[in-house]
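U., I forgot to send this yesterday:
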Amino acid sequence: MSSFLRHSPYCSANSPVALIGASPGRRRLLGAAAAGLATGAGATRAGPAGAQTAAWPSKPIRLVVTYPTGGVSDAVARLLAPRLAERLGTQVIVENKGGAGGSIGMDAVAKSGDGHTLAFAAVSPITLNAHLMKLAYDPLADLVPVACVMVSPVWLLATPLFTGRSFADVLAQSRAKPGSLRLATSGVASVGHLMLEQIRDKARVDIVHVPYKGGGQIFTDAVGGQFELLTTNPGPAVNPQVAKGTLRLLAVGAPRRLETHPEAPTLAELGFAEANLTSTFGLFAPASMPPAIVQRINEEVDRLLLQPELRARLIETDNLPAPMSQADFASLVRREYESNGRIVRSADIRAQ
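Result:
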């Protein structure tokens, strides 16, 4: 989970995050600037790591997606895997292991210890879940952030079952009939859950939380009218439904309005700055993985994120590639962990 409006130093004019909502010309200029900065960082980080990791990898790499199939994380992991395999010279096998807001998959990776297992996940299984539930792993001690992959806006959507037309209608109906609106998220301790809690707290409304185990089944149930509202990240499963109007975009968690959906206000614009959250996704490894290997993976992922085709595939779905050094990513995760702890305590958020 990330709120780049409030917590992150990466939302600068040259940041990949700044590309959200930018005009095509400005997007090209900012993208070139970000690419130049990242390329320079990669050059300074290169060095003895290549020599130290000459014998690695010695077998296929297992890439554990900590959510079920069908969601944005699964789609991006399968987009990244063959490209990373080519860079590393071995197979990268994607395995979905969902549940508990990503914590089940993270636990499996933390305990793998074979030097060839990675997780692809949002940062929330590290930065948020520990504040809401008892984990079988220490999120800061047992795992190491390896490479930031992307920043993803969070969409607040209406299903065909919701009769209102705007976010104001959500508040009005929930006040007129407390408990009449249900909002689905990808799970307890997900960024959508935290967004909902922030909205409920500030607006003093009763909206029922419907947690799923990942993002895939949500879309089938949403189109089928099993609930009125949902939060999700943009991706191949949801974007076509929004384009057709089956699911309607009421608001977004993003630094600014999206160029592809300029009609949808940010939650900050609507007066809900604390709920204006984005998701950060990346690769994580067991803490036992040698630093030289962690460094190499970071550099390879950064190079992939600068490739025009992969960048375009992410940007066209409103997911922003966010290459950064391993040290910067680790620092971001640490800050999010501390920030989320304050938010959870202040709002008295509890796992359901």
